[in-house]
């Protein structure tokens, strides 16, 4: 996301995120210090970049979306994830602006997006040609963009979720594969997560154009998250998850990106499932006194039914007039799956084994 958006940390504003890494044992008490209380009273901020992460190939994270957003109040970049082949999951705050009453009191939000460029399969944001797949949406933005009706842009970024319906499906490719949404058991405390995106690699640095990811982000339970954020006067709700790590996490930058976990709750999968959406963090990213970096993400489990209801209604086919005609599998995809021997481990939306073997 734009550094301008992330800098809006005054008067209870929020900041979107990206990520931080240093290999140090996590032995610190999860308590904000008196210094950090003063430091962070400005309010949470939407996240904008991955700090201390590692360059990553799009084949490792083929659902990663890079979204360039033109809004009436400026241009922004956000992350997202590919669902099925015609939907992008992202954060609501990327696409809207706080609405105020004539007296200047915050009162809901309004969609201020006028154009979206959506890219999947990106390694370098300076190189958006083939094999990167891209779409632009310039008309009827409201018909493509679904913002959660209970999204709270003014206070705590609760229900910070958005879906983008693409004009057409992307084409299946080793760099372009949808992610599967996790279930409740995938988001149990103690599991380790991975986040990814584009942007600055240090809080005060300039943006990088290379896809970055960071792993080993430990998932905490709700009571620990509430205990950490309550003194900071940030509202942590049951629609959120949090990680709090030493010198490692997300910081102002890639709001909307997928937070994933691997098989058996490890952050070095595959197979991968998405359990969260990068949402918000602290204005200074890291507590300078303790080195702790908290990251709050949308809890996908709370929105699975909401997501699938939107997709299923939009994609519901007309009633058939006769028996359905079977669609033959794509030979290119089947040969790719066979060659990669990943059909049993790639947890993608389509059942590739059944598709390819009949």
Automatic annotation (TrEMBL):
Pfam short name (any one): Trypsin
Biological-process GO terms, alphabetical: proteolysis
GO MF, any single term: serine-type endopeptidase activity
Keywords recorded for this protein, A-Z: Disulfide bond, Hydrolase, Protease, Serine protease
Keyword flag Protease: yes
SMART domains: Tryp_SPc
Regions crossing the membrane: none
Domain Peptidase S1: 50-312
Protein name: Peptidase S1 domain-containing protein
Originating species: Meganyctiphanes norvegica (Northern krill)
